[in-house]
Design a protein that fits this description.
It comes from Aegilops tauschii (Tausch's goatgrass). The protein is built from ten helices and 19 strands. By secondary structure, the protein is an alpha+beta fold. β8 and β9 form a beta hairpin. The radius of gyration is 22 Å and the shape is globular.
Length: 432
C-alpha cells in the first residue's frame, strides 16, 4: 500500500478540525456536531447475544512448537475460514517494547494541538496526523483522530510526518513495526501451510512485507450511541495486526450478518484477514467487515499495522486452490480501486464471482418479476445492483461478470450474509 501513494491521485477537501478538540469543546454541553451524527447505527445494532461470541485465540508459541504445531495450525485455519479474525497471544513481541509503544502513542495524542499539527496530513496527502478520505463538506465523519505512517520498506518512510515528540517515538515505532513484520511473516507461513500452497510463493506476493500503521485516537463522547469511531469496512490489504494501547474496548465485527463486540485480551494482537488474502485463498479465508464504536467516558487508542502486497504484482487465487472464484487483477489497480471507493464514501469490496452461482432464467414470468425488483438498471453502470424476490431480505451482488457471453440470459443467486439459505438476487442482461 505504501508503494502506491506516489502512483495515484488522492484528492481531499482539506484538513478538518481535530475530533479531540471538538470533544473537549463540547464536553460540558454533550452536543455533537451534525456531521458526526450517524443515524444508521440504530438500524444496525449489536446482535441480541453479542456477548455470547468470542474471537478464537491462537497461541504463537504452540504454532512454533513441533509438539503442538499441527493442532494449533488447524485452529488457525479454522479461525481464518470461519471468522477472519483471531487474537494472537505469546506472539513474541517484547512486553517492554509493547509498553513503550503504548506510552509514546498516548503521549503524542496528549500534546497541544499546535505540536500535533506539525505533522498534519497535507492537502491531497495520506501520511500524517488528521483525517482520511474527507471528500466533501457534507459527508459524515468518524469520531477519530489518526496518525498514518508508511513504515516498510524504509525508503517509503517520510520522516517529515514522524513525530519528534516524545523523543523516543521514532525509535520505538521503528522497533515495534519491525517486530510486527516478523510476526506477520510467521503467520503467512503457517497460513500457506494450512492452505496447501508454497510458503515462498505466498510470501513473494508480500515481498519485503510492505507495511503502514494507522494509530487511532477515539475521544470519549457523551452521545457515544450516535457516533461511529470507524465506519464499517474491510481492509484492502493482506493482513492487519491491531494492538490496543489502553484497556478501552470498541472493536466490533460482523459475523453472519450481525455485529459482535470484541473483548481484546491484554497484550494480545488482534489479527484480521484482509481482502487480498481472501482473494489469494480463493475465498477460503474471509475478510470480515468491522467497525469501531466509542466510549462515553474514556478515550480509546489503538495501533493498526497493515501488511500489503509488493508492487508491481498481480492479485488472484492460487491455481492449486481450485476453480477461481475471483478475477486476477493488477495490484496497483486493486489499490487504486480501494482508495477510490474510500474517496467516494463507499465500502470497497472484492470484485469476484464470490458467493454467487449462475442459474438460467427459464420462465418469462420469473424474468418480469426480476426486472420489477431491480433498484438500479444495468445502464447505470453502478458498482453493484440490488434485487430480490423478498424485499425483507435485500442483499447486493457484483455486476462485474454479468454481461459476458457466458452469462447472458442468466442471473445470479447469492448467499444472504445473515443466513445459510440461498436468497435469490438477480441480474438480467439484455438478451435474457
Amino acid at each position: 500500500m505504501a508503494e502506491s501513494f506516489d502512483k495515484m491521485k488522492v484528492e481531499f477537501t482539506g484538513h478538518e478540525e481535530s475530533v479531540q478538540a471538538l470533544a473537549e469543546a463540547f464536553h460540558d454541553s454533550g452536543e455533537v456536531p451534525e456531521r458526526y451524527i450517524r443515524p444508521e447505527i440504530d438500524a444496525d445494532p449489536l446482535a441480541a447475544d453479542a456477548g455470547g461470541h468470542a474471537l478464537p485465540t491462537i497461541d504463537m508459541s504452540r504454532l512454533l512448537d513441533p509438539e503442538f504445531s499441527a493442532e494449533e495450525s488447524a485452529k488457525l485455519g479454522s479461525a481464518c475460514e470461519h471468522w477472519g479474525f483471531f487474537q494472537l497471544v505469546n506472539h513474541g513481541v517484547d512486553g517492554g517494547l509493547l509498553g513503550q509503544t503504548k506510552a509514546d502513542v498516548a503521549e503524542f495524542f496528549g500534546l497541544p494541538p499546535e505540536e500535533k499539527s506539525a505533522v498534519a496530513i497535507p492537502p491531497n496527502g495520506m501520511q500524517g496526523f488528521g483525517h482520511h478520505f474527507v471528500f466533501s463538506k457534507e459527508q459524515k465523519l468518524d469520531w477519530v483522530d489518526l496518525l498514518f505512517l508508511a513504515t516498510r520498506p524504509a525508503q517509503e518512510r517520510c520522516l517529515d510526518f514522524w513525530p519528534t515528540k516524545p523523543s523516543t517515538f521514532r525509535d520505538t515505532l521503528d522497533k515495534y513495526t519491525t517486530e510486527l513484520a516478523s510476526v506477520a511473516e510467521q503467520l503467512f507461513r503457517f497460513m500457506a501451510k494450512d492452505l496447501g500452497i508454497d510458503q515462498e510463493a505466498l510470501l513473494g506476493t508480500f515481498k519485503g512485507l510492505p507495511q503502514c500503521v494507522r494509530i487511532n485516537y477515539y475521544p470519549p463522547c457523551r452521545q457515544a450511541g450516535k457516533v461511529l469511531g470507524l465506519s464499517p469496512h474491510t481492509d484492502g490489504v493482506g493482513m492487519t495486526l491491531l494492538l490496543h494501547a489502553n484497556d478501552v474496548q470498541g472493536l466490533q465485527v460482523r459475523k453472519d450478518g450481525e455485529w459482535f463486540s470484541v473483548d481484546a485480551l491484554p497484550g494480545a494482537l488482534v489479527v484480521n484477514i484482509g481482502d487480498v488474502l481472501e482473494i489469494l485463498s480463493n475465498g477460503k479465508y474471509r475478510s470480515i467487515e468491522h467497525r469501531a464504536v466509542v466510549n462515553p467516558d474514556k478515550e480509546r487508542i489503538t495501533i493498526a499495522a497493515f501488511h500489503s502486497v509488493h508492487l508491481p504484482c498481480t492479485i488472484g487465487p492460487f491455481q492449486q486452490l481450485g476453480d477461481a472464484r475471483y478475477k486476477t487483477v493488477d495490484g496497483l489497480d486493486f489499490t487504486k480501486g480501494y482508495f477510490a471507493a474510500k474517496l467516494e464514501g463507499r465500502s470497497y469490496r472484492r470484485t469476484p464471482i464470490l458467493k454467487m452461482r449462475v442459474l438460467a432464467v427459464v420462465n418469462s414470468v420469473c424474468r418480469a418479476a426480476i426486472l420489477l425488483r431491480l433498484l438500479l438498471t444495468l445502464e447505470s453502470k453502478k458498482a453493484s445492483i440490488s434485487a430480490t424476490f423478498a424485499p425483507s431480505s435485500l442483499i447486493k451482488a457484483s455486476l462485474h461478470d454479468c454481461n459476458t457471453d457466458e452469462n447472458r440470459g442468466k442471473f445470479l443467486c447469492a448467499y444472504k450474509p445473515s443466513s445459510t439459505t440461498l436468497a435469490p438476487v438477480t441480474l438480467v442482461s439484455e438478451s435474457s
